[in-house]
């Protein structure tokens, strides 16, 4: 398993970076759309849809919604701030709701566990703002600097995945106190502290060498907020997988599980980071 995990990482990492910096906005948007449709297909299983044709319809439904969202910016080089504002506010409302669901789980499950439609709505509130945040960040500053948005997206990806790795390492070495045992037995407070420590180091180092438009202290604050939200995204997917009785969202990525297993943290961190960058800063 570890062998496949390393090989897949080595292959996918340069592809992701190349997509960020070499593809035009239209091409990058289409690839992001396909990834989100695959994530929606996996979410169908979390929502209780076990028949493939039903999950395909869910993926197509999400694809239409995302295509309509993308159409507003497909042939423009400026971000539609009004549309982005609405999408990101949905994300904020959803992650506050998700926090309550996680904190009060399993008691919180009684009012949504038997409603597939409600779980689809939760999926929409997760995937659609994530898509909007990715596209908005990629096109950030595009009119004056083709690569500015790409650097911001690369930064948040490195930050979240680096913090996740730091939490994993610290948790394995020092982990004793469970962070949220009712949802995930693998996460500890020691890993949580390790993730935040890694966030600080990554933010300071990348802040020196990556052309980000924020002041170092502001970037650090936004980074901590984004990573805290990413932990919630991870816990939320774990909660849904526990309810669905599955370990991985799918087996699309050898050694890593499914698309959702790789982007669960980003689905929370990216829209919040985009909100702070585009609508606050």
List descriptors.
mainly alpha
Task: Please tell me about this protein's structure.
With about 280 residues, the protein is an all-alpha fold. Helices cover about 75% and strands about 5% of the residues. It has helices spanning about 1-20, 25-45, 50-75, 80-105, 115-140, 150-175, 190-210, 215-245, 260-280; strands at about 180, 185-190. β1 (about 180) and β2 (about 185-190) form a beta hairpin. It is globular and about 50 Å long.
Mean pLDDT: 85
Biggest sheet overview: 2 strands, antiparallel
Query: How many strand segments?
Result: 2
Q: Strands of the largest sheet, in order across it?
A: 1-2
As a percent range, the share of helical residues equals over 70%
Q: Report low-confidence residues grouped into runs of 5 or more.
A: none
Number of helices: 9
Overall geometry: globular
Question: Structural class, from secondary structure content?
Answer: mainly alpha
* N- to C-terminal distance: 42 Å
**Rg (C-alpha, Å):** 18 Å
SSE order? HHHHHHEEHHH
Q: What percentage of the residues does DSSP assign to strands (E)?
A: under 5%
The gist of it:
The chain has 281 residues and is an all-alpha fold.
What is the fold's blueprint, element by element?
Blueprint: H1 2-22, H2 25-46, H3 52-74, H4 81-103, H5 116-138, H6 148-174, E1 178-180, E2 184-188, H7 189-209, H8 216-244, H9 259-280
Antiparallel strand pairs: 1-2
């Amino acid at each position: 398993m570890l062998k496949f995990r390393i090989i897949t990482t080595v292959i996918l990492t340069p592809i992701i970076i190349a997509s960020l910096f070499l593809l035009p906005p239209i091409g990058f948007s289409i690839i992001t759309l396909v990834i989100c449709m695959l994530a929606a297909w996996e979410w169908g299983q979390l929502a209780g849809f076990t028949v493939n044709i039903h999950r395909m319809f869910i993926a197509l439904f999400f694809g239409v919604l995302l295509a309509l969202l993308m159409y507003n910016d497909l042939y423009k080089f400026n971000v539609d701030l009004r549309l982005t504002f609405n999408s990101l506010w949905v994300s904020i409302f959803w992650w506050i709701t998700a926090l309550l669901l996680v904190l009060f789980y399993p008691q919180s499950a009684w009012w949504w566990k038997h409603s597939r439609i409600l779980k689809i709505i939760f999926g929409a509130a997760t995937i659609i703002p994530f898509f909007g945040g990715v596209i908005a960040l990629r096109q950030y500053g595009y009119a004056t600097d083709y690569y500015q948005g790409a650097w911001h997206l690369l930064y948040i990806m490195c930050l979240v995945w680096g913090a996740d790795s730091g939490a994993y390492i610290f948790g394995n070495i020092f982990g004793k106190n469970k962070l949220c045992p009712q949802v995930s037995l693998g996460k500890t407070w020691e890993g949580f502290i390790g993730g935040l420590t890694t966030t600080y180091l990554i933010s300071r180092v990348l802040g020196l060498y990556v052309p980000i438009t924020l002041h170092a202290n502001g970037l650090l604050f936004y980074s901590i907020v984004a990573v805290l939200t990413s932990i919630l995204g991870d816990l939320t997917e774990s909660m849904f997988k526990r309810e669905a009785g599955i370990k991985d969202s799918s087996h699309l990525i050898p050694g890593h599980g499914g698309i959702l297993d790789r982007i669960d943290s980003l689905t929370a961190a990216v829209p919040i980071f985009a909100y702070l960058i585009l609508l606050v800063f």
